[in-house]
Amino acid sequence: MDNFQPPVPGKLTTAIVICCYSDKRWDVLNKAMEAATRQVPAADEIVVIVDHNPALALRLRAKRFETPVRIVENIHPPGLSGARNTGISASRGEVILFLDDDAVSDRDLLATLVRQLEDPSVLGAVSAIRPLWETDRPSWFPDEFLWTLGCTYRGLHAGPVRNLIGASMCIRRSVFDHTGGFDSGLGRTAKALPLGCEETELCIRATKALPHGRFVFEPSSGSDHAIPADRATWKYFLHRCWAEGLSKASLSLMAGSGEALASEKTYMTRTLPQGLMRGFADVLLGQPSGLLRAVALAAGLGATAAGFALGRTRAALTRRFTSVPARALERVE
Q1: CATH no. for residue 48?
Q2: Which of 121, 143, 148, 291 has the maximal Cβ count within 10 Å?
Q3: Which family, according to the similarity comment (predicted)?
Q4: Residue 294, in any domain of the structure
């Protein structure tokens, strides 16, 4: 059923797109969908994209919602990029709020981000994304590396940013009209390494095509991003850093090292050294967890650098990189 509401003159029409793929996230997915239906003011439409899981799609279609929710199956190859591209085609709103299936949004999230887009120079906006730990937060986990969990990290400040974080981001439809969709060569899948950077690549591509536009971070509202116990481990932390390095290597070949790594240079020269100093200062104040955080900062940087080096070496040996951006997004009924 098409749940799109007729536009009000002078008002940006809005769509919420939630991408999901696993029955294992059923409980938190329901919370995410419930939060989406309770936005104030309400979105003009809500679309849930199911990534190649017919049983989950059937289960969702049997569910009753407080407001109309459209369930659509991913028509593109499996992965988050393909699911989002399906969501773009299946929705009509001038502004699209993308939410992860494990991100529970504040009631004013959509309104807060849409206000940013009332400035025509703003192409997209991202909210604060807060970690919601299933278990106690590890004492060693540094705020500077919350990006490994898809959350807002220390060092990210309100205002213009190079790229958005995908768990809770709002983008103008016109961006996709001008530049195409998310790149399926970078998007994460359920089975592969947790590669990413599809949001970064899109934002870089968009600002090249629309040089007077910008993306912004607005932390006054946000989402709680569920962090399961298996992601609060050293193994996942290092694995995710390694995968980020591989992704950045691919991105640097696609977009050029200058644009692909501009934010990372500031992060490495300012944010990480400040984090190390805080860790050592905590040790002097009698807090041994400060040393663990300092070790995690160094280990995370090392794993990311190793992944980046391997990615660039592989590319140099093969002398090619395959990328499949969705340039033309067909309408999904």
Answers
A1: 3.90.550.10
A2: 148
A3: Belongs to the glycosyltransferase 2 family.
A4: no
This prediction's pTM? 0.89
Q: How far apart are CA 294 and CA 278, in angstroms?
A: 8
Which residue in the block uniquely carries the two structure tokens 């309100």?
Answer: 158
Structural domain boundaries enclosing 121: 14-232
